[in-house]
Request: fold
Amino acid sequence: MGCKMEVTKDNTINKKLSKKEYLKGWIPLRYMRYYVAVFATAFTLIIPWITVNGNHFFLFSFIDFKFHFFFVVFDIQELYLLPFLLMILFIGVFGITVLGGRMFCGWFCPQTIFRVVFRDFLETTVFKLRKRIKNKQAEPDFSIPINQVKRVALFLVSIALAFLAAADALWFFIPPEQFFDYAMHITEHSIFMGTWIGITVFLVYDIVFLKEEFCVYVCPYSRIQSVLYDDDTIMAIYDNSRGGQIYNDNHEKLVDKQDQLAPSDLCTTCESCVTVCPTHIDIRQGLQLECINCLECVDACTTIMAKFNQPSLVNWSSVREIEKKEGKTRYMRPKVLGYGVVLAGLFVILMVMGSGKELMLININKQTRLYDIEIVNEKPIIENSYTVLIQNTQSKTHKFYIDVVGNDKIKIQRPSHPFIIKPGVKTKKTLVLYTTEKLANSDRHDTILEVKLKAYAMDEKDKIFAIRDIRFTYPRSDIIEKKLRRVK
Ligand code: SF4
Ligand code: SF4
Reply:
């Protein structure tokens, strides 16, 4: 197409390009969302299968109540990391909302990705039930007989995909190897099967029947988003000053046809931005709770305005830039930096706590008797007894033992030998510490002494170990004297 000269509405002379020339190099935001969706889908499908030494990247195992994170396994008693993960999740989503509005909904949310697959790929591209991706408001015409057949085929494909999606969701709670073992023996695992079918039924209902009503009426995120927005939050935003005022402040429509607008207003009232909207809203009314920031309306208006050599009237921009005309959007603002600092801090804490994780579990509690005094060869031996719960959290059997650290006056009487614990097994032991030394000399009160214990796997002493501080009670000297006199 050749170039033409034209006089625009504001009387400047422009070189007229064809729409194709004008859009050269432009990539629809929709395609970028598709790339993100493909990556997110591949990631969630592949990640449950990746293991290092039998440990998963992310698994909250309902089988053995273990939490796998970054290929490190945490026992259920060690879930001190979980609050940090939840804080990172919530603060991260809030931070993304301050920066990019409901971007999570439009770009990452499984609901949106499933709907794109169902509506844009299956219904429109594969089964041709809808005429165009750009018109999401015209529902398929099921009065046509062939469409009824396609509808059944589409429903069956949807059920198959929902089964896969439900299985993928479960793989984060039941590792795939066990999942398929359960699936092969469904009669023995009715709860598992019921959960799988239940999630599948919900997904089919949600994606095929509930559709974007879920985003508009069910999802709580839309309710909180507006309080997080500020003038620099980027979102789909219509430029009234260029396009013309279509709605008044009470959201009443003022304009249906272009000739009702001023000559300088550029909106063609084509409503491409409306028909493409999956949540069925008109972005020209301003920010609405229903907007999921998918930016389809930006793409739609970009292609319409390209015919007039004009930038889109609907932009992915901010109130500061488009409505208030106060210059460029400020991405690096105190609020955003605050979220960044908090997230970085939480991440560092998570990493430090995760790296300091003990590879065994041990719990030591003093028994009810404060101490025992034995007299051997007319010398007192002071004993303190403890109940020890020790768990081998590793995947292979180890031989464990316990040492007193940095104190050669207090020794271990029981257990007298190292003991074997199988993988995942928790064992109860009685620990008896004793001393033949005179560690205190008070006839007014018992003396409490701090003792450090190290429990460890004999074959990996420097790797699989846990250190605990406990208290050793040394009796009053008059009690020891009395016992000695009684024996003599
Ligand atoms: S797509 Fe652009 S020109 Fe068409 S109605 Fe929407 S804002 Fe106006
Ligand atoms: S107005 Fe509709 S099409 Fe535009 S970003 Fe929001 S949800 Fe998407």
Observations:
- The CA atoms of residues 36 and 422 lie 44 Å apart.
- The two ends are 118 Å apart (CA to CA).
- The chain has a mean pLDDT of 89.
- The chain is about 40% helix and 20% strand.
